[in-house]
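About this split. The held-out portion is used to measure sequence recovery: a designer receives only the structure tokens and must propose an amino acid at every position. Recovery is the fraction of positions where the proposal matches the reference. Here is one held-out target exactly as it appears in the evaluation file.
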């Protein structure tokens, strides 16, 4: 029997290799899918077991918090079981908080109160309640929105001390509504805003104004001001708000010495101990020390010295070796003194004089900056307003003592000091009282249909509408920012993958295998069609190559290269007879 020609044997061998290669690939893919599915099933079973164990632990923990005993409930939630149930009913009936698919109102309120009672972070709460951090954060905000709607119930209406009061502590304060003060609450602001939140004691906190009645019930709360803001400035903001603190005619609140005596607010008298002058003189003579105090050992600054001091402050404000988040590093006064002596060699000055001058300039700057902010004018316009409206200026002196001495007196250092102290000034943009917060919640309607992240089959939608805000409200800018942020959220939808049982997963896996086999069958048919078309034109290619002088190994090599791609065959037969040889030589 005669052997088949060489070209037929090579074609059959090529086809056999291609088919074998494809079959091996398909077998390897099937083995990979089977192995992956087994691993997935094993992991899924372990995950289901862990989920069930977490659910049991979570139920036991919530039961011990809210049902086991009053002692444990007071220790962990700062309230007994009865109070906790009342709060849950109020949040559910008035606040509108509802059970989700896997989280009850009791659980949501429990970890909300736990965060407030122990100042814990999401990471800690997620470990205690066996929830994800996203779930804790989402449900915390839901409960917070519901609590804000209870402000008219939780905040007491002020009542003045009557004439027939029997409490010995409050008898002298007829018409008093209560007392107020500011408190620092530690926060973690963004890095670029940390300077404004640094308090005078060096901590990072927010200044919260609290107003209480004589029986220790809250009347008004204003959170959100930066820690660097003075208590008097926070109080001015609370009074100027349309929904802020109101003081009826003839009534007043008790304040500490950090506030000024004014209409509606009574501060204690600033007393100081007295000593005999002879004793002081003898002590000074014996110790040979300088007498300190207001007006003692006073130094008068020239215009040139003041400008040199400001230039040194500007240099240090731009020097990272001395500038910090809350001001300057320790011992910066000695550095300023050294720089001033370098610029003015004849200058004789002490550090205490520099400290006193910096306090004076800083107080004047903040007073002027506050007047510019409240009036919406530049310093030149405010300076003219002070000269023309003396009554307006005297009212400012009552609420800001550093504004004294500005009447008909120029202050040319304001623009230069703004480079030193301007960026560290508190703004109060995020400050918001409960009534304004509730109004902003109404302006930004938030529709939340949520379930637990592990087996939720719903989506979260944020639907927000911007409504008109009062133009005279000092919190309108913060409210608009909040609404804008929520409107930005409206363009996003967060979907959680639905939980599937084993039968559904098995069906989906089979569907994936069928789809893969169908696509593989299509690729095989396409490849076989291509190989048949290529093989059917092989004799024509050999004949054309022989016609143009190719023979022996060159002919077989050229035919193999050309038949590997149908485009090469089409291009070969489309060329002129003069171009075929050059094209074949290029390929081989």
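Reference sequence for scoring:
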């Amino acid at each position: 029997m005669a052997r088949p020609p060489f070209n037929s044997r090579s074609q059959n061998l090529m086809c056999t290799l291609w088919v074998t290669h494809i079959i091996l690939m398909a077998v390897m893919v099937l083995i990979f899918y089977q192995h992956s599915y087994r691993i997935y099933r094993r992991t899924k079973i372990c995950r289901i077991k862990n989920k069930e164990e977490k659910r049991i632990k979570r139920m036991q923990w919530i039961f011990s918090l809210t049902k086991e005993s009053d002692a444990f409930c007071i220790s962990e939630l700062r309230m007994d079981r009865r109070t906790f149930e009342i709060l849950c009913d109020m949040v559910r009936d008035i606040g509108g908080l509802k059970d989700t698919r896997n989280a009850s109102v009791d659980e949501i309120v429990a970890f909300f109160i736990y965060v407030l009672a122990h100042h814990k972070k999401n990471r800690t709460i997620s470990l205690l309640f066996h929830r994800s951090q996203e779930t804790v954060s989402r449900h915390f905000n839901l409960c917070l929105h519901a609590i804000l709607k209870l402000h008219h119930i939780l905040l007491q209406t002020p009542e003045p001390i009557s004439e027939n009061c029997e409490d010995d502590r409050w008898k002298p304060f007829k018409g008093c509504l209560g007392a107020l003060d500011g408190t620092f609450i530690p926060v973690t602001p963004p890095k670029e805003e940390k300077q404004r939140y640094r308090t005078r004691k060096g901590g990072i906190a927010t200044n919260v104004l609290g107003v209480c009645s004589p029986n220790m019930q809250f009347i008004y709360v204003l959170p959100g001001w930066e820690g660097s803001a003075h208590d008097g400035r926070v109080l001015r903001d609370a009074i100027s708000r349309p929904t802020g603190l109101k003081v009826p005619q003839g009534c007043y609140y008790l304040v500490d010495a950090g506030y000024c005596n004014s209409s509606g607010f009574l501060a204690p008298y600033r007393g100081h101990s007295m000593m005999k002058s002879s004793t002081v003189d003898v002590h000074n003579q014996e110790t040979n020390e300088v007498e300190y105090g207001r007006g003692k050992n006073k130094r008068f600054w020239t215009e040139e010295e003041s400008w040199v001091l400001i230039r040194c402050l500007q240099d240090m404000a731009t020097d990272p070796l001395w500038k910090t988040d809350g001001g300057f590093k320790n011992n910066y006064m000695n550095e300023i003194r050294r720089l001033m002596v370098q610029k003015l060699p004849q200058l004789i000055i002490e550090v205490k004089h520099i400290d006193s001058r910096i306090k004076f300039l800083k107080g004047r700057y903040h007073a002027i900056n506050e007047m510019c902010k409240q009036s919406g004018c530049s310093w030149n316009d405010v300076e003219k307003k002070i000269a023309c409206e003396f009554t307006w200026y005297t009212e400012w002196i009552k609420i800001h003592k550093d504004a004294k001495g500005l009447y008909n007196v120029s202050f040319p250092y304001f623009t230069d000091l703004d480079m030193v102290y301007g960026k560290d000034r508190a703004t109060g943009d995020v400050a918001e009282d409960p009534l304004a917060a509730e109004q902003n919640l109404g302006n930004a309607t938030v529709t939340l249909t949520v379930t637990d992240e592990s087996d939720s089959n719903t989506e979260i939608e944020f639907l927000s509408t911007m409504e008109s805000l009062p133009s005279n409200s000092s919190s309108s800018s913060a409210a608009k920012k909040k609404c804008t942020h929520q409107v930005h959220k409206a363009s996003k939808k967060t979907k959680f993958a639905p939980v599937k049982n084993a039968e559904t997963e098995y069906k989906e896996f089979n569907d994936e295998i069928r789809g893969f086999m169908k696509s593989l069958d299509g690729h095989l048919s396409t490849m076989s069609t291509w190989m048949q078309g290529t093989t059917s034109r092989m004799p024509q290619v050999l004949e054309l190559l022989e016609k143009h002088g190719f023979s022996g190994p060159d002919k077989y090599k050229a035919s193999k290269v050309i038949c590997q791609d149908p485009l090469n065959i089409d291009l070969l037969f489309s060329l002129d007879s003069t171009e075929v040889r050059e094209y074949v030589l290029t390929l081989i």
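Annotator remark: Confidence is low (pLDDT under 50) at residues 272-290, 444-499.
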